[in-house]
Structures are given as C-alpha cells and as structure tokens.
Design brief:
alpha+beta, two-stranded antiparallel ribbon, 38% helix, binds zinc ion
Length: 78
C-alpha cells in the first residue's frame, strides 16, 4: 500500500473512501476540486464534469466527499 498525503480508509457504510475527521475531509475536498478544475481548463469547459462539492458525515461518524447538494442528498435518503 502506498502512503498518500491524505489518508483514507474504507468505511463501514460501504463507501470506498472515508475520512476520520472534518479537517482531513476538507483538505481532501480542496485537493479533489483543484484536480477537477485543472481538468476542466484543459478541456475548455466544465460541462458534464463530475465535481465534489462538499463532504458529509455518515452514520458511522466518518466523512465522505460528494458531488450532491445537501437537498439532493436528503432527497435521495428519504
Ligand atoms: Zn461512511
């Protein structure tokens, strides 16, 4: 296993990447967005580009990144 700058582990909720605390999740979100933005610039547009918008705490107390808004997330969970 390679050591990455931002550590993550599999969460009990089934999500591949979970972050132990909010600070780590925020850092990971920033990195993910920077990566997407560079990709969008290269393509000249950002249409249809998946982009993580926020992170949320799941029922197991870990943090995950998502591209859904809070409303979409709550709607999906209902
Ligand atoms: Zn989880």
């Amino acid at each position: 296993m390679t050591i990455k700058a931002v550590a993550f582990s599999r969460c009990a909720c089934g999500k591949e990447r979970g972050y132990d605390d909010e600070r780590t999740a925020a850092k990971a979100l920033g990195r993910a967005q920077a990566k997407r933005d560079r990709l969008g610039e290269r393509k000249g547009h950002r249409r249809g580009l998946y982009r993580e918008n926020r992170y949320y705490e799941c029922q197991y107390g870990m943090f995950h990144l998502t591209s859904q808004s809070r409303a979409e997330y709550l709607g999906a969970a209902a």
